[in-house]
Amino acid sequence: MKKEVNAIGVACPKPVIMTKKALEEITEGVVTCIVDNEVAKENVSKLAKNLGYEFDVEKRRDGNFSVNITKGEGDTEEVNVCTPNTFKDMTIVFGNDKMGEGEDELGNILIKGFIYTLTEATPFPATLVFLNKGVNLTVEGSEVLEDLKKLEDEGVEILSCGTCLDYYNIKDKLKVGEISNMYTIVEKIKGVTNTFRV
């Protein structure tokens, strides 16, 4: 049996809930969930992974994503992937690899503490954007990589400015998130209720 879930334009946690409901309605077959953003794609994929189902992700010609989940007969494991209020309608922009102005040592301590605290406090921000010297936080050698990877694993979108990575000649050292461009970054900032700059 095949079912299609159209979750284009639908905010988390609804794509996950819609997909889970579709999976519960079949004993075996394929459920395809179509989403239009990375966060939803990752959360629906996480649902499939946590349920133990086989799945694949296809980038569609229209820029959307299809997450194809194959359910075998008797698969009934319960999972909670994207609960209400897991993500806040917020983008945080990191324009520096330190927090605040003043002593560099203190700025390093503060940025590490801030990013660690993000991993412990829900709701998570929807997106983290790294610009200018902020891209140093997402590359090899960064002291906050482990915490950023935890956030990414939870479904937080992490974007680093490609122009900035090129300027500092560190694009090949990116270790977490994706390379982005100014158009996407502007859209991420415009598309949320709250933007916070570090």
Structure, described:
It contains 6 helices and 9 strands, in the order βαβαβββαβαβαβαβ. It has 198 residues and is α/β, with parallel strands linked by helices. The protein has 2 domains: 2-71, Translation Initiation Factor IF3 (2-Layer Sandwich), CATH 3.30.110.40; 87-197, DsrEFH-like (Hypothetical Protein Ychn, Chain: A), CATH 3.40.1260. It has a 5-stranded parallel beta sheet with strand order 8-7-6-5-9, with helices on both faces. A hairpin with a 5-residue loop joins strand 3 (54-59) and strand 4. The longest helix has 17 residues, at 104-120. The mean pLDDT is 88.
Sum up the structure in keywords:
198 residues; Translation Initiation Factor IF3; Hypothetical Protein Ychn, Chain: A; 2 domains; five-stranded parallel beta sheet; four-stranded mixed beta sheet; 9 strands
Protein topology:
Layout: E1 2-6, H1 14-24, E2 29-35, H2 38-51, E3 54-59, E4 65-71, E5 87-94, H3 104-120, E6 124-130, H4 145-153, E7 157-161, H5 162-167, E8 178-180, H6 182-190, E9 194-197
Parallel strand pairs: 1-2, 5-6, 5-9, 6-7, 7-8
Antiparallel strand pairs: 2-4, 3-4
Strand order of the largest sheet: 8-7-6-5-9
Cα end-to-end separation: 49 Å
Reported by name, the CATH topology of the largest domain is: Hypothetical Protein Ychn, Chain: A
Which CATH C-level class of the largest domain is it? Alpha Beta
What's the gist of this structure?
Helices cover 33% and strands 26% of the residues. The chain is built from six helices and nine strands.
